[in-house]
Design a protein that fits this description.
With 774 residues, the protein is of the alpha/beta class. It comes from Pichia sorbitophila (strain ATCC MYA-4447 / BCRC 22081 / CBS 7064 / NBRC 10061 / NRRL Y-12695).
Amino acid sequence: MTVKVEKPSNKREENIPPQKSYPLRETIAGPEPEPFYNNYQYGVPIALDFGTSSLKVGLTNTTAPNNVFPALVARYRDRRAQKTLSIIGNDIFRDPALRSSSKGPYDGALVTNWDYIEYLFDYSFEHLGVHSDNGRINNPIIMTEPVACPLAQRKNMYELLFEAYQAPKVALGIDSLFSFYANSDGRSSGLVVGTGNESTHMIPVLNGKGILSQTKRIDFGGNSSSQFISKLLSLKYPYFPTKLTPQHTTNIFKDHCYVSMDYQEELAHYLDIDRLEDNDIVLQAPVDVNLAADKRKSEEELAKQAQKKREQGKRLQEQAQQKRLEKLLQKEQELQYYDNLKSELEELPPIEAQRRLEAEEFEDMNDFKKYVTNLEKSIKRSKNQDMGNEEVDEVDQWPLINIPDDQLSPEEIKEKRKQKLLKANYDARIRAKEAKKQEAELLAKQSKEEEEWRERDLEGWCNAKKEELNNLVKMVKERAKLIHSFKDRKSAATQQRMKNIADLANDATGSTSAASRKRRRNANTTIDNDPNDTFGANDEDWGIYRDISNAAVEEEQEEDYAKIVAIEEKLIKYDPEFTEDDTLAASQALDWKSSALHKFLHGPRQNVAVALGAKITDPEELANHPEIIKKNHQIHFNIERIRVPEILFQPSMAGLDQAGISEIAEDLVYRRLDGNFSPGGQSYSMINDVFLTGGLTHFKNLRERVVKDFTEFLPSGAPLKVRQANDPILDAWKGMQKWAGTPEAERSYVTKEEYEEMGAEYIKEHNLGNVCLM
């Protein structure tokens, strides 16, 4: 009885549309060049939001910066003009070669290339239209600097501004505090969460002044996120044909990541098919599918290639034949030489003959004869191989085997034994060839009988083959269970195997079991006349090795698989009811819907390579299929969408031994501040205005996640308010522009005269800048 397994319907796969793909976006320059400012005025402060990712530059008599461009510099050598050009900002993205060689002046949050800083200053001042009649910049400078900026960094910046550009006065501040200032009345209190390009800072602000002594930093920002995505995708797709640039990963991060409201719960079900349909993002790298498809060879080209291979094979055979003939000729010449030498040796006295043999590098006459005999045999074998002659003349090949021993000398008797062995070997080969021939005849006869049976009774033949197939499949499955059970040391099969090994060891070391005593008594059946070794006297003894060896079981498994494939091929060919879906391979095929790895790598669709592989058998045609080429240039961005932003809340996921935003905030309001959540308390002021700023605040759900996490640790009824900057990218510059016209700004400038008198260590503290903690 044949049992047919019903396969699940593929109607759902056939009806669903292909996934939408998004291009792997490059950063491109705008159509217009960087604008120049035409209303430059002396004495108006210049605001420079000098970030590690981009620069925002403008005069403070406007409401928005005049120039916003990336902090990148590329050096280009014009060989004709013998000049080296510095390309800066968005202009770099107009040329692929410049894009790949561009660099920033920063290593992390600190400047390491001050020449590049000077290039950026020159570029900024030129586009602002700065001009002077005294060789100086006649405008005050307001700039941003990192939180807790090292003295060496500030010293070099002062030196550049005061000595190179001769600026009249300079004020430095913190970008996230300037952003908070732009979105408040200047005397507000709150908790500023500044998500920067290199790090994230949490700064408590009381009455408009940042409390730097309680500021905390998380070493993770936009650039770290981009690098983390690059590492994740490199591990996920190690052989991806397109190199992912920092611009690629930065754009992926900005366009497709979002903050999870409940990371663990969402992660547990992220790869469910229904959710994956909405969450899986297909990123398509640029590839010319038509050009790649045109590379496929036509039938005529394939025929020419096959003919070329045949001709090449024929040439190789001819070359090998020529080499064999050359070696044969060389051996014949060598044999002729030694035949002449043999004639000479027979005429020489023994002492002279021995000296001559040693000169020819032979030990004695026996060594010489042995070498000549082997040389003759080698020549005969070569001639037989070249002529394809399998038959040999026994009289010429083994002349001594039919001569009685009493007619032979002792040396000839030894040679006769060797010839008997060679003759036996030859006879064995002839018998094996005959047995192989008889086996082929038997198989041909069976095949003919089976063909006649199939033509006479197709239904009966199909039923018999299916019955045989079912028995083989059943045997294969049972053997697979046995092989799997060997991996479990507590299974019954493994225990029995270990028992058999122990029994063998006991027999070898003098076991006192009844079986061992019986084998010792039967000393006349021992092997090698060892009275203690009776193993092997009975054929059943050798079966023990099949019980303790996995290799034998695996060999039987492979043989049965080969038989199954052969039967299935016949049934597919002659039985209309038997299809590919009924084969053992189809029943054991991977269910991609239940494979987390498949969904992680290929999304909520079947792998196109597997689907096409069932229809296309030619590997070259399959590799050059347009769908395969397109698929190989795709990235499925799914779990990474929530994994990377989650590092802000769980830095340990990126290997950082630091607390996340929520944990830092909890420690701050409960332990670092007064812990008073009633009006007038410091903690009350903090949670009453949690301000999010910086590039990462563009993430979807960031504000909602902060509200959720903060609510969990705050007391019931606490007045939590979380807001985002109106423009997280430009609000720092707008805060500088707003602050520039206040009396506090006038008191916070360090003039050139003060710098020259007091040195770079001198700092003027203000509400929005760094403080001296010494």
